[in-house]
Amino acid sequence: MRLKDKVAIVTGAGQGIGEATARRMGAEGAKVVVSDLNEQTGGAVVDAIKGAGGEATFVRADVSQVDDVKALMNAAKDTYGGLDILHNNAGVHETNFTTTDAQSFELSEEIWDRVIAINLKGTWMCSKYATPLLAEGGGGVIVNAASIGGLVGYPMGGAYGPSKAGVVQLTRVMAIELAPMNIRVNCYAPGNTDTPMVSKYYDTAPPGEQEMIKQQLLGTHLFGRLGEPAEVASLVVFLASDESSMMTGSCVTIDLGTLAWRGMRT
Q: Is 160 a catalytic residue?
């Protein structure tokens, strides 16, 4: 077990990559604090981890709200005695909200603020308040969810893309700042993955364009399929484990070759 007796917080763990990661960390021996806004789905993930013989507890938290973030960190300490791993996974896209057009010039200020608040501010704030706990334990690991949308542009991502680009840069800055505390900070940039967020991206497209957009998503991959959350979870567990002990400040793409043909270097 690669994470035996480690204490891990996973935000946005009620579905998609967060759920897959929380369950995989539990299987790898971690004590998992499952955090999400949705108590029903978050609780189901806890039940699944416990049913497989692992340890887990649920904490409802909005990562854009400082009191929720502080309570989340306190819950890890009170329940399991500390913190070793933080996976900043919670995130939203423009199309998570009711909007007639997710193009950047049509976005409302409210939607822009909410996407930035959750994706970027939430990642910063959770990391900020996790740092003392990680340091108290002699060090630890922060793994941030970025996106290929933060490395290259694409339509209907005018807030999401900048928020994820910010996560990449925040990862680099924090890796430098936290190294003296023996805390490693890395991020990963997944391609289009079979999650509710990606499904909503093309489901909310204008009538008659859903199938075209879905094919465009698949067309960016060198293999004609979406990624699976469990595949991304394998990478997250590696980054959270001692197997990646030489890695900090890195952004790892896991994108079925999406960026290879664009000549992108990270």
A: yes
Q: Into which CATH architecture does domain 7-194+228-256 fall?
A: 3-Layer(aba) Sandwich (3.40)
Q: Taking residues 154-183, what's their average pLDDT?
A: 94
The residues spanned by each domain of the chain are 7-194+228-256
- Annotated active-site residue in 80, 129, 160, 201: 160
Token pair belonging to 27: 């299987």
pLDDT in tens, 213-266: 666 666 677 777 777 899 999 999 999 999 999 999 999 999 888 888 765 454
